[in-house]
Design goal:
By secondary structure, the protein is α/β, with parallel strands linked by helices. The chain has 12 helices and 14 strands. The chain has an 8-stranded parallel β-sheet with strand order 1-9-8-6-5-4-3-2. The structure holds flavin mononucleotide.
Length: 326
């Protein structure tokens, strides 16, 4: 079903990649996605390399899907990068990077350890640079996306430019929250879709219930592209629930709450306009924190197991594409 160059290259049954989402892309989410045939991603930036090895060693094997590691170079000390990439690439099927210029050295490190290299990009030029750097596949991210947004134009326009410019498999990201949108990017020539927001509303993400409730009640028009939540990561625009931006603007104090590192359990303070993941260990005024959400939020109607999300999206896309071809 829905076999593409991506599914063949990565060894997945379904052309869906779950986005690495920082503290919300827990190994249990990646496992649920891989069990359903998708590519489950774990964000490993800022995680101790030994812990990365341990985490991947304990993942189940021989699943219909595969596992990958997601790295945002901005959050890795340069002297820790080789060990971080080596730990991830030794065990993950794919290691991908986001939010910096494609770097042939990093791609080389991934290949040395036997994994596939991927870059999430936001423009045609960046896609060409990723292919030139040696990436085996590329994710093209449109401005509809939730979380930090590299794309400056809508996904369909970006996909068209990127697909005309590179030969490696390309996934579309941004605003894809149901089978209809998955079918649309496949029909446009993409080899799969990367999905973020929809998986936040799964029990496996560990997202804070108030955040999930906000996603369930929101539509695409309730998200906003902004650079307001800049503390901890400057010059990186993002898309959040509009309600969270308004609540942060109206919040009377600087201290908004406290988070907990999901791997070490260490607490950290959260201030107003800080860029942060909001999970079950987060306390305080959650509604005024950075509640990342893509325009795909229109596809979030309830909390649903991640495996069901993968199957539902794949089946709906399959049906629509068959109807279209008939
Ligand atoms: C809660 C959340 C956290 C995210 N964190 C990351 C991250 O750590 N690394 C990354 O490469 N992309 C991250 N992204 C962006 C995704 O890779 C992807 O581009 C986006 O989710 C696609 O749009 P969608 O949310 O509409 O599906 C995040 C997105 C969300 C919603």
């Amino acid at each position: 079903m829905l076999s593409t160059r991506f599914t063949e290259l990565v060894g997945c049954e379904v052309p869906i990649q779950q986005a690495g989402m920082g503290s919300l892309s827990h190994p249990r989410l990646a496992t649920a996605v891989a069990e359903a045939g998708g590519l489950g991603m774990i964000s490993v930036y800022g995680v101790d390399p030994e812990m990365i090895s341990d985490m991947f060693e304990h993942l189940p094997r021989n699943l219909p899907g595969a596992f990958g590691a997601n790295i945002i170079p901005h959050f890795v000390e340069p002297d820790m990068m080789p060990a971080t990439v080596a730990a991830a690439a030794s065990q993950a099927r794919i290691v991908e990077f986001f939010y910096s210029d494609p770097d042939p050295e990093l791609v080389g490190l991934v290949h040395e350890r036997g994994a596939l290299a991927c870059w999430q990009v936001g423009s045609r030029d960046e896609a060409i640079a990723a292919q030139t750097a040696g990436c085996d596949l590329i994710v093209a991210q449109g401005i509809e996306a939730g979380g930090h947004v590299r794309g400056r134009i809508s996904l369909l326009a970006l996909l068209t430019e990127v697909l005309e410019s590179v030969d490696v498999p390309v996934l579309g990201a941004g605003g894809i929250g149901n089978g209809r949108a998955l079918a649309a990017v496949l029909a446009a020539g993409a080899d799969g879709a990367r999905v973020g927001t929809r998986f936040v509303a799964s029990p496996e993400s560990g997202a804070h219930p108030a955040y999930v409730q906000g996603l369930i009640t929101a539509n695409a028009a309730d998200t906003v592209y902004t650079d307001a939540f800049h503390i901890g990561w400057e010059d990186a625009p993002h898309r959040v629930l509009r309600s969270s931006l308004e609540a942060a603007e109206a919040f009377p104090e600087e201290a908004v709450g406290e988070g907990t590192n999901i791997y070490t359990g260490n607490p950290y303070p959260i201030v107003r306009f800080q860029s942060t993941g909001t999970h079950q260990g987060t306390t305080g005024a959650v509604e005024a924190m950075s509640l990342w959400a893509g325009e795909s939020v229109s596809g979030v109607h309830r909390v649903q197991p991640a495996g069901d999300i993968v199957r539902e999206m794949a089946e709906e896309a399959d049906l629509l594409l068959k109807r279209w071809c008939a």
